[in-house]
Amino acid sequence: MELTLQREPSTDESTPGTLSVNGVFECFTLEDVVREVPGLRVAAWKVASRTAIPVGAYDVTIDFSQRFGRDMPHILDVEGFDGIRVHSGNTSADTEGCILLGTARNGFDEVINSRAAYNAFFPKLQAAIDNGERVSITIVAATAVGATAVA
């Protein structure tokens, strides 16, 4: 299963985007602000619990989250970040570096119907893993004019 998160330019508060599953639109996403500075180590630009993960490709699994007390999607081997999950939530206050899902947006800094989006996504991910498929997510940088990392 191939997941693609296409980022849009960050606002002062968050980074909106979209998630596709095997090339088909799944839902809207919301992350923390992109602060990535290419060529610099993560420690040079990361603001703890307020920074989106670096662009790139990552493996995804489902495992137990101590914080949430249940099995959840886990994005693996993100340099400088630990415990990056895909979960429900509405604003950047809910992310702490994770990826939030929503069926719609309320402006650029909020996704809505997040539990519905998560509940539609999770069984697809679980089925792929149960079928022995490799699951990966590719985070793609915003391409719009002025889509640079916020420092």
What fraction of the residues are assigned to beta strands by DSSP?
35-45%
Shape: globular
Number of helical regions:
2
What's the gyration radius in Å?
A: 14 Å
Share of helical residues = 10-25%
Largest sheet: 8 strands, mixed, barrel
- On the 0 to 100 scale, the average pLDDT is 94
Number of strands: 10
Please provide the ordered H/E string of secondary-structure elements: EEEHEEEEEEHE
- Cα(first) to Cα(last) distance is 33 Å
Domains, number: 1
Query: Going across the major beta sheet, what is the strand order?
Result: 1-2-3-7-6-5-4-10
Low-confidence blocks of residues: 146-151
Class of secondary structure makeup = mainly beta
What would you say about this model in short?
The protein has 151 residues and is mostly beta strands.
Word description of this protein:
Mean pLDDT is 94; it is low at 146-151. Helix content is 14%, strand content 36%. With 151 residues, it is mainly beta. It has helices at residues 42-45, 114-130; strands at 2-7, 15-21, 24-31, 56-65, 70-75, 84-87, 99-102, 104-105, 111-112, 136-140.
